[in-house]
Design brief:
about 90 residues; mainly alpha; three-stranded parallel beta sheet; 4 helices; globular; oxidoreductase activity, acting on paired donors, with incorporation or reduction of molecular oxygen
């Protein structure tokens, strides 16, 4: 189980990261530095980047991934993830 921060591009990723930092009570931190820290344990990036990371987990034997969506009213983030990660 891991959190995620997704954006269609870098600008959207940074905006969503700012919202996550506010949610975490870390809104005063430099966004790019905090995002680098989140990358260590969360899935962070564009939908394609996140899909690549999930594929790496799969290759390592992981069979299930549970994503924690902390921005509960941000349906667009879920749509971005679904576009790339859900079987179609």
């Amino acid at each position: 189980m891991t959190g995620f921060v997704v954006g269609r591009d870098e600008a959207q990723l940074l905006r969503r990261a700012e919202a996550i930092l506010d949610w975490l009570g870390r809104g005063e931190e430099e966004v790019e530095e905090a995002l680098a820290q989140l990358r260590e344990s969360w899935l962070v990036g564009t939908p394609d980047e996140i899909a690549e990371r999930v594929a790496e987990y799969s290759a390592a034997g992981v069979t299930h991934v549970m994503l924690q969506h902390h921005l509960h009213e941000d349906d667009h983030a879920l749509e971005l993830m679904a576009e790339r990660l859900l079987p179609g």
